[in-house]
Amino acid sequence: MAATAVIGYDQWQVSEDTGADVPRLLAGVLDEVHAAGVQLGVPKLGLAVKCFHELKARQRFQGNVVTLTFALPLDVIFTKRVGAM
Question: Distance (Å, rounded) from C-alpha 41 to C-alpha 24?
Fold first, then answer.
């Protein structure tokens, strides 16, 4: 059975950039971004797709993120292993 969820994330830079390569214009600037999206998955098969749309980006690029996850469902392996004992 497929599962659907509303998901999101927030990122904040908590310390200033350091080093000789930091342009003076960006000195002391902290960036941030927020994102909202959906996740579609089939837990029994270990498959999931996440799609995020970033919004309200400040001092950084804004875009979209798509993640495809393949996982090994351990309950199937565990059931076969215990059943064999």
Answer: 45
List the domain range (segments joined by +) for residue 70.
3-12+28-84
Instruction: Round to whole Å and give the CA distance between 60 and 15.
Output: 15
Answer for the pair 36, 55: CB distance below 8 angstroms, yes or no.
Answer: yes
CATH number of the domain at 78, please: 3.30.1300
85 pLDDT exceeds 60?
no
Q: Is the pTM of this model over 0.70?
A: no
The SS3 of residue 24 is helix
Q: Is residue 54 a contact partner of residue 31, using CB atoms and an 8 Å limit?
A: no
- Summarised one tens digit per residue, pLDDT across range 23-65 is 888 788 899 999 999 999 998 888 999 999 999 998 888 999 9
The answer to whether the CB of 11 falls within 8 A of the CB of 32 is yes
